[in-house]
Amino acid sequence: MLEFAVHFQSGLPAYEQVVYAVKKALVARVLKPGDMFPSVRKMSQELRINPNTAHKAVAALVAEGLLEVKPGLGTVVSAAPQATRKQRSQILGPEVERLVVEAKQLGLEADEIVEAVRSHWKRLR
Q: Model's pTM, two decimal places?
């Protein structure tokens, strides 16, 4: 079982969606520095994607310094600095966009969306 979930959408490259899901798991601290990261083989099997796609996602995460390849050990989550507030906010970008589009389609105003978010926020405290 993978520590992160990918909800594939058509029109977006699969490897980018995997990278996004991993970043989201890192920001949410589901994946922590030092955690073992699944092998390309396991990831491709679990996500039902081509191994080349899984490898491309891992390579992108390594290039960004989010993962490290440790010879003889495997791939681990790097001890990179914690995500900044801006980075954490950017992770929400796609969800915020979907919310705004849906709200506009329903004819809601920005203040109504903000109030709905506040209401849900309070309920989750």
A: 0.71
